[in-house]
Sequence to fold (204 residues):
Amino acid sequence: MTDPNNKHSEGASASRVGSTSLSLLEGLKVQDREGWRRLVHLYGPLVYGWCRRKGLPPSDAEDLVQEVFLTVVKRVVDFRRDRAGDTFRGWLRTITRHKLGDWFRRRHTELSSVAFDLQGHPLWQRSVEFDDDADSEDTVALYHRALELIRSEFNQDSWHAFWRIVVENKDPAEVATELRTTRNAVYLAKSRVLRRLREALGDV
Fold:
């Protein structure tokens, strides 16, 4: 994780072509090349891990990641948050689950005889549900990648306030004293970073 040592002005990256200041969804909807790059960077390892844990060989897992992302780009305009808990990651997970189901069915038709997994179940009937514990580790790694991506958009004090409160779970009053500012100021800094993080992840 990037350590907040160097000071940058907030919004400094906004003037760059393909700026990361766009939300992930905005970038994908306008078919921005940078949006695709961020999708692959942020979520590629996550989807690849889901596929590998379901038994796909590395090359097939890589191909399926591409299938998933192509579907995301085609259908991103239809993405909705109809319920409070709906997230881009959850939507991506649903697409991946469907693609995995397609992959297992294709494998079933390609084999001359039915193949079985280690538990004795037909391979094509293998569950494509995901393990919550493993997914939580993947989610932590996802947030780390997203934080590294947005780090340069905030000055040192804002990042320090966010990091101390959210990551290190420090008391806001203590952080305000460290920064010689008010608790309200550190809460606002935390809020700005969290909102930008959600944008980067496609959840705003």
